[in-house]
Amino acid sequence: MIGRLLHIGARATGLLGLAAYERLRRTPPDRSCLPRRARISLERLGPTFVKLGQTLSLRRDLLSERWLDELRRLQDNVEPFPGAEAQQAVEEAFGQSTEQLFAAFETKPLAAASIAQVHRARLHNGRAVIVKIRRPAIRARIDRDMRALVATTRLLIIIAPRLERLQPLRLVDEIWANLRKETDFRQEARNIRRFNEAFRDWPSLSIPNVIDDLQTETVLVQEMSGGTGIADPSVDGPRLAEVLVDAYLNQFFVIGLFHGDPHPGNLFVTPDGRLCFHDFGLTGYLDNRTRRALAFFLQAFVSGDPLWLLDSAIDLGLLHEVDDRSAFIRGIDEILADYASLPLKDWSLAEAVLRVAHLGPDDKVMLPQNLVVLIRTLFLIESALRTLDPDLKILDTLLARGRDVMKGLLSDETGNGGRARLKAEAALAAHDLPGVLAAFLRRLQSDGFHPAIIVRHEGLETIEAHLDRTGNRLALALVTLGLYIAASLLMLHSAGPRVLGNVPLLALLGYLLALGLSFRLVGAVGRSGRL
Question: CDD domains annotated for this entry (predicted)?
């Protein structure tokens, strides 16, 4: 541990020294040696740090494009581990020899990565499969290396306090947690099964499934499929672009779980013309609120509504709520003006999301992992779509094909930002209103009503009494509204005993009580002589 800590510390100190030297010499960013030296250092520190660099290559919110380009080169520089070790790992995982498990097993790996490598195999029933095998002892090595990295990071913060504003310790902890998830192939198997279930009835899509009873924490056996790359001129690009759009609209707005790495190596076309997804090690998750915010962000962007775009960005988590919104509005206006001068086919939702995120101050909390994966995924989707169909109007297609999939979250009217926002927000408010009122009535029943504003000052007794009456009337109005809604729901569902032929008794009592409270409220307002 001490030796590893010294090795990591020496590399980090060397990079910090180079950064200080280039800063003193005012080296232009495009001539800096720091990104290349950092990538080389990560490679020499081993698989854990290769994976660390690959994870950092997702962070468009933190790093410049030059850094990202250099870190992406880490994808192709991982040495495989010996085939004999792979065979032994499979036998230990399943408690059987490879001869018992497979009719054939190739010890030469098909591909190698920092966490695992893949081998071809064939089951006894003749089915071709791939076997994904975790690197031996990689979990223990990750934990050891990450503990050393945490210690080194703390030391660097003491040496260079300005680093703390980038929240490096939080970033390291987040990467550590994600690395531990990626080394458990049972989670990947669950993701694959979930995608297969969701797209079972899609004839245009193919997702190789997991082989039953052949997956553990360290080994995953999956159906093998082959085909043509999406850049091949023989594929039907425009049709496949529509398939890709539909698939991701369902992932974003229906399933809430999406494939986070749709680069050309993980997308290809099967011989029968289906679009095939591979490698579900990196996935993203969107909860209901995030799905809504993303849908609203998309429509606000196309509608050119800066206020709506700002609210959607805050709901999405790209920005944090502030008292002075004027600077954000100006920044969003500039972004929208830039896009207004471009042809629609050149608009980029991914770039717009990233540019809006960069409007926030540098000292704000960094983006959460789900948004980091989302932004990267959007860039990769747009790149794949332009490969398949260079003339595709991506945003126009998203809205046109997404109206049914988003189930009313998006409006049909994209040309009028104000009306589009009103319809979308009103529909959402109407959907949530019964739950909000029910929660309010529950609190009112438990705690009683407490006026939100209490004013006490000598000589202002009249104002205090007026505010008290106003609060009571407001409470009475809300209770009355709640009773009308509750009675209507009871009437709709015909709940409880019936009277007067076929009228639900509970609904009738609710209406009568609400009507009585309405008369009382109207009488009180009438006696005061004011509305």
Answer: ABC1_ADCK3-like
- Structure-block tokens of residue 180: 């531990």
Going from the C-alpha of 9 to that of each of 52, 54, 167, 170, 357, the distances in angstroms are 16, 20, 19, 19, 32
Report the alpha-carbon distance of residue 161 to residue 297 in Å, rounded. 36
Tell me whether strands 283-285 and 257-259 are parallel, antiparallel or unpaired.
antiparallel
30, 76, 201, 261: the catalytic one is 261
Residue the block writes with tokens 């398949």? 388
Return the closest-CA partner of residue 190 out of 79, 285, 86: 285
**HSE-CB for 516 with a 13 A CA cutoff:** 5
Token pair in block for residue 97: 């020899």
Catalytic, 305? Answer no
Residue 530's pLDDT band (boundaries 50, 70, 90)? low
Digit-coded pLDDT (tens) for 219-272: 999 999 888 888 888 889 899 999 998 899 889 888 889 998 888 878 989 999
Intra-chain end-to-end CA distance of the chain, in Å = 76
Considering only CA atoms, which of 130, 398, 405, 378 is closest in space to residue 258? 378
Kindly report the pTM of this predicted structure: 0.67
The full 3-state SS of 137-195, as one line of letters, equals CHHHHHHHHHHHHHHHHHHHHHHCHHHHHHCHHHHHHHHHHHHHHHCCHHHHHHHHHHH
Write the DSSP string, 320-389.
Answer: ---S--HHHHHHHHHHHHHHHTS-GGG--HHHHHHHHHTTS-TTSPPPPHHHHHHHHHHHHHHHHHHHH-
Helices 461-493, 505-528: crossing angle, 10 deg rounding: 160
Distance, in Å, from the CA atom of 131 to the CA atom of 222, rounded to the nearest integer, reads 7
Range among 141-145, 433-437, 452-456 with highest mean pLDDT value: 141-145
Distances in Å between the Cα of 334 and the Cα atoms of 37, 60, 331 are: 36, 20, 5
